[in-house]
Design a protein that fits this description.
Aconitase, domain 4, seven-stranded mixed sheet
Length: about 160
């Protein structure tokens, strides 16, 4: 079981506010990309987030374009888990490909506030918050293998060697 500080956001948070589109073709390094994570939604996020913090959000997190930086910006600041009532399909898959665990969980956003801590037990598939227990959906073995490897590319590199780049 691991403890995580949470950042709480609402419904329909789109990729343009997770990582502003104006930077898509100009910022290249992980540090540059991380510095602008969520800046149009929460300017305090990129300077206040700490590795291991998680995001808890409402419905349709990651709607909009399939911009990869909207996931990598969160990966680069150290967010290992995104918990939302629902995700855009492309964003959900981009999380898996980048090694971030996307968790669909209803009701959690209603009981936590930014700065609270939650406990995540991946073995039992439970999230403990505010005296309540929330279930985490079971992942398929193939998705779990990608996450355990740190993302799709690292998994393929382990399986097939450096030629998988």
């Amino acid at each position: 079981m691991s403890e995580h500080r949470v950042w709480v956001y609402g419904d329909h948070v789109n990729t343009d506010v997770i990582f502003p589109g104006k930077y898509t073709y100009t910022l290249k390094t992980p540090d540059e990309i991380a510095a602008h994570a969520l800046e149009d939604l929460d300017p305090a996020f990129a300077v206040g987030v700490q590795p291991g913090d998680v995001i808890v959000a409402g419905r349709n997190w990651g709607c909009g374009s399939s911009r990869e930086q909207a996931v990598t910006a969160l990966k680069y600041v150290g967010v290992p888990v995104l918990i939302a009532e629902s995700f855009s399909g492309l964003y959900f898959r981009n999380c898996i490909n980048q090694g971030i665990l996307p968790v669909v969980c209803s009701g959690l956003r209603d009981v936590v506030r930014t700065g609270d801590t939650i406990m995540i037990d991946r073995l039992s598939g439970e999230i403990h918050a505010a005296g309540q227990v929330f279930a985490m959906p079971t992942l398929s073995p193939s998705v779990q293998a990608i996450l355990d490897a740190g993302g799709l590319v690292p998994m393929l590199q382990r399986r097939f060697g450096e030629s998988a780049r």
